[in-house]
Design a protein that fits this description.
By secondary structure, this protein is of the alpha/beta class. It is built from 6 helices and 7 strands; from the N terminus they run βαββββαβααααβ.
Length: 190
C-alpha cells in the first residue's frame, strides 16, 4: 500500500459503521501506517442513513473532510441505495462491497452500475449465525480487508481483541472474531 485509499461507508444508524471505521483506523495505525476513521453526522437517529469514512496510507496525509471520490464504497444496508446514490463519485475502477445475499452480477444490475467492481457478502446472515443478532459491521470489516489488504487479518483480529476485551464477555469477543473471519472468507467477487 503506497497511495492514499479512500473508503466511504453507507449504513443506517445503529449498524456499527462508526465502530468499524474507528476499529479499522486504529488497527492500521498500530500496523505503522496512517489512517482516519471519520463520521459524517446529520440528524442522527437509529435507522437513519449515515455515512462514515476511512483513509489509509503508508505516507502522512492532512485531509480532514468527507470523501467525494471513493476508491471503495461499503454498503452495510442495501436499502440505503434506494434513497442515497451510493455510487456517486466512484471511479471507473472503484470497488463496491455490499452486504447482501445476492451474487455480484445481480447487484450490478439492480444498481444499474456500469463501472467499478462489485463484491458481496451476506454479513447480516454471518452476524446472525455468529453473534446472534443482525449486526453486519464485523463481517464487513473482514470482507473489506480481503479486497483492500491494508492490514492482515491477524492485525485486525488483534485490534478487535484489544478493543473489546474487558468491555464484552469472552464469548462476545470470540463471536466477533468468528464473524470477521467468515466475512473475510465468504466475500464473493464478480
Amino acid at each position: 500500500m503506497s497511495d492514499l485509499i479512500e473508503i466511504r461507508w453507507h449504513s443506517r444508524g445503529g449498524q456499527g459503521a462508526m465502530v468499524a471505521v474507528r476499529t479499522l483506523a486504529r488497527a492500521v495505525i498500530k500496523d505503522n501506517k496512517y489512517a482516519q476513521g471519520l463520521p459524517e453526522f446529520g440528524p442522527e437517529r437509529m435507522g437513519a442513513p449515515i455515512k462514515a469514512y476511512n483513509r489509509f496510507s503508508t505516507q502522512p496525509f492532512s485531509l480532514y473532510c468527507r470523501i467525494v471520490n471513493p476508491h471503495v464504497v461499503v454498503l452495510l444496508d442495501p436499502s440505503v441505495a434506494k434513497i442515497v446514490d451510493v455510487t456517486e463519485g466512484i471511479y471507473d475502477d472503484s470497488k463496491l462491497l455490499v452486504n447482501v445475499c445476492l451474487p455480484p452480477q445481480e447487484v450490478r444490475e439492480r444498481l444499474k452500475l456500469k463501472n467499478g467492481k462489485i463484491y458481496t457478502v451476506d454479513a447480516t446472515r454471518i452476524a446472525q449465525e455468529t453473534l446472534g443478532r443482525p449486526m453486519p459491521n464485523t463481517p464487513m470489516m473482514g470482507a473489506l480487508i480481503k479486497l483492500v489488504p491494508v492490514i492482515s487479518l491477524e492485525v485486525l483480529l488483534n485490534e478487535v481483541v484489544g478493543e473489546f476485551i474487558g468491555k464484552c464477555s469472552p464469548g462476545i469477543v470470540e463471536a466477533n472474531l468468528a464473524a470477521i473471519k467468515r466475512g473475510f472468507e465468504e466475500v464473493s467477487e464478480e
